[in-house]
Design goal:
With about 700 residues, the protein is an alpha+beta fold. About 30% of the residues lie in helices and about 20% in strands. It has 19 helices and 32 strands.
């Protein structure tokens, strides 16, 4: 364990003076949608009254994601080895416990099986852990220890089962260090063996406890400096993380330093909330919303040193860095249920507004095109694109399929849709002038991040469609487009999916107008896009009818979803929603493929959902529906117009407004989302936190 690391320059704390007003306004410039490139700092701008955050290319595309000059690659091949747990931390003048519990509640959507908090009481640190939901932790905490510094954590088991011993926070040494960790440490066993040989005792099966003991070991060998009292602790953290191979988001407290909180990031997101005499650490912005409206997004290899008096941020290679404090756009209303029974239902009904937000400032009537300032490509470069790869996972992969239809129809550019989990390992031949889009709600999807890094490493331009400002993918991509869907708390994606499809439609218009699309055609597409939120509002009126239909089929064991062309991805998405939250087995197919195997599953107990708004293949889908009905299978039809033949064949018909084919996936998805929701509620399932699932899949 005889290792060394070069130390950062550190000369105190940035003072945040009371004369600095929290949440100062950012000048609003319409259509400014800029992502600065090759910058270690994140920059904010505003698009049509909305904030955009810079996409940073720090430490990406140079052979590996991180590299220590003394020891070689820290983390080259397994960018995806990360788990989506949740961290919160507080230092200030108020009691920490209330923020910690409330913050952990707001992170529940990330998925977890145990939780814990640590509160510094002045002379010692009190730790409380619990298996299960946050409420169980709150009940066990009771009247918490008084303290103005603390940290909390939600854990999803990777190393070791879900037990109180394995729950965070973990203790280092004999209690001098307390730590919460997100991520996976790949070389933990080697480090653990070395620490055991030195006499350290481990109480958990986790890889995270190794980091706590490493920091304690670092404190032993680091002398105090009276002129810089925090330097010893910063140095110990630096020394410890230099030994790690893997990913980490860390919040660290120290028994002998009751006013000091240190946060560090590599590959696992962390944000800082900047208040007035108080500072917050969290895995994302949702716990901080409503407590301050200023935020800092930490980048990889950065360490934040926080006290009640101020904070500073250090980078592994460049020492102290100047950070950009950005306005926090979220408010508490966006992360509360606002009277809805579940977040998922709220987010389904928010889609008219989220679609308006996605389009705001991006439709240009004068040129009959869309406007994107964050792609970081010149018009000449964009016109030279000969092929596009869309990659994502789960729901984002389904929206990519919709984008494939749109881009090929409107821009006549060949499109390939790839599962990110396969693209990262498949090593396909990719031609020059190929543009790679990563599509992700969270911006933290491990396979998508790895796929983008791999293609970028080979010299291809990477762009992202992302909903979360400051996320890992937002920093890794060369440019991109934010969805502006707002926080999506329910694990099953709804409004992010429709916003992804909407942004892809605008990109198709943008690319098409650069090529062969006429002014008149572009204008018609803009008109249809502007009508879309109203069409979705109309589609939402089917809620009560869908609830009635759900009551008939809530006990089904299998459901088939069938559609063609643009509505084939809709069928896949509808089936995924039902699987995710009701635990009913469901499959989506192109309707014409039914006779090549799936029709063998049709019986009186297996309903088939046909997505069949009026379009070019309407008559073909009608024939497919006849085939199912002839074999005694129950039929649910999602249709856009009344027709006697549909009513004759289908057992149930859900009506949606008529829209152009390229927008049908958005409108058709509404009744399918509602059907899944109501069936799950009737079955007594945990709609917002379904079993075994997390909002962001950050493990392979």
């Amino acid at each position: 364990m005889n290792r060394s690391i070069g130390l950062f320059a550190f000369d105190g704390i940035i003072q945040i003076r009371s004369s600095q007003r929290v949440g100062s306004n950012v000048p609003q410039k319409p259509n400014e949608d800029l992502w600065p490139v090759n910058s270690g700092q994140t920059r904010g701008s505003v698009l049509g009254g909305q904030r955009e955050c810079g996409w940073s290319s720090l430490d990406v595309g140079h052979g590996c994601a991180g590299h220590n000059k003394n020891r070689g690659p820290l983390f080259c091949h397994s960018v995806a080895a990360r788990v989506m747990c949740g961290i919160v931390g507080y230092v200030g003048a108020d009691q920490a416990a209330e923020f910690l519990i409330d913050g952990l509640r707001r992170l529940e959507y990330r998925g977890y099986d145990s939780a814990g908090v640590a509160i510094h009481g002045g002379s010692d640190i009190s730790i409380t852990r619990s298996v299960g939901r946050i409420q169980a932790l709150a009940d066990r905490l009771g009247t918490p220890t008084e303290g103005t510094l603390g940290l909390g954590h939600t854990r999803w088991a990777t190393h070791g089962p879900a037990t109180e011993e394995n729950a965070h926070p973990h203790i280092g040494g004999t209690g001098e260090v307390v730590l919460a960790h997100n991520g996976v440490i790949e070389n933990f066993q080697v480090l653990k063996d070395e620490l055991i040989a030195k006499g350290y005792q481990f109480k958990s099966a986790t890889d995270s406890e190794v980091i706590a003991h490493l920091i304690a070991e670092g404190l032993k060998s680091t002398p105090a400096d009276p002129t810089q009292p925090n330097m010893r602790y910063v140095t110990a953290v630096q020394w410890a993380i230099a030994q790690l191979r893997g990913t980490y988001g860390l919040a660290v407290a120290f028994r002998e330093k009751p006013g000091l909180l240190i946060a560090a990031r590599f590959g696992s997101p962390l944000v800082l909330g900047v208040g007035r005499g108080e500072y917050f650490v969290a895995s994302d912005a949702s716990p901080i919303a409503g407590r301050t409206d200023r935020i800092v997004y930490l980048a990889d290899h950065q360490i934040a040193v926080l006290t009640a008096d101020g904070f500073t941020v250090l980078h592994r290679d460049s020492g102290k860095v100047r950070v950009n404090i950005q306005p926090l756009a979220e408010d508490t209303g966006e992360v509360s249920m606002n009277g809805y029974e579940h977040y998922m239902l709220k987010e389904i009904h928010e889609q008219p507004d989220s679609l308006r937000n996605a389009m705001r400032g991006r439709l240009n009537d004068e040129d009959a095109t869309a406007v994107f300032g964050g792609l970081n490509l010149t018009p000449q470069q964009l016109r030279g694109v000969e092929r596009i790869i869309l990659t994502g996972c789960g729901t984002s992969w389904h929206s990519a399929l919709v984008g494939e239809y749109m881009i090929e129809e409107f821009a006549r550019i060949p499109v390939c849709v790839e599962y990110a989990s396969e693209l990262r390992y498949r090593n396909p031949p990719i031609e020059n002038n190929t543009l790679v889009f990563g599509i992700t709600q969270s911006g933290e999807t491990a396979d998508t991040l790895a796929a983008l890094n791999e293609t970028k490493r080979k010299g291809h331009r990477t762009l992202a469609l992302c909903n979360v400002v400051g996320s890992s993918i937002a920093q890794a991509a060369d440019g991109g487009v934010y969805l502006h869907a707002g926080p999506e708390i329910g694990v099953a994606s709804t409004k992010a999916y429709s916003s992804q499809c909407c942004v892809l439609a605008m990109l198709s218009l943008y690319f098409g107008r650069m090529r062969h699309m006429s002014f008149e055609s572009g204008g018609r597409i803009i008109e249809e896009l502007r009508r879309l939120p109203a069409a979705v509002e109309q589609a939402l009126t089917c809620d009560s009818e869908v609830r009635r239909i759900a009551s008939k089929y809530a006990e089904a064991s299998n459901v088939l979803y069938l559609g063609r062309r643009y509505n084939f991805p809709t069928a896949l998405e509808g089936a995924l929603k039902l699987k995710e939250i009701s635990y009913i087995h469901a499959e989506g197919y192109p309707a014409a493929e039914m006779k090549h195997g799936p029709i063998a599953l049709v019986d009186k107990d297996t309903p088939s959902v046909f997505i069949m708004p009026r379009g070019t293949t309407y008559d073909k889908v009608m024939s497919n529906m006849e085939e199912v009905k002839a074999r005694g299978g129950p039929v649910i039809a999602v249709a856009s117009h009344e027709e006697a033949q549909i009513r004759r064949i289908a057992d149930e018909v859900i009506m949606i407004p008529e829209v152009p084919e390229f927008l049908q996936p958005i409108v058709s998805a509404i009744p399918l989302q509602l059907l899944s929701y109501h069936i799950a509620v009737l079955r007594g399932c945990d709609v917002d936190k379904p079993r075994n699932l997390a909002k962001s899949v950050t493990v392979e």
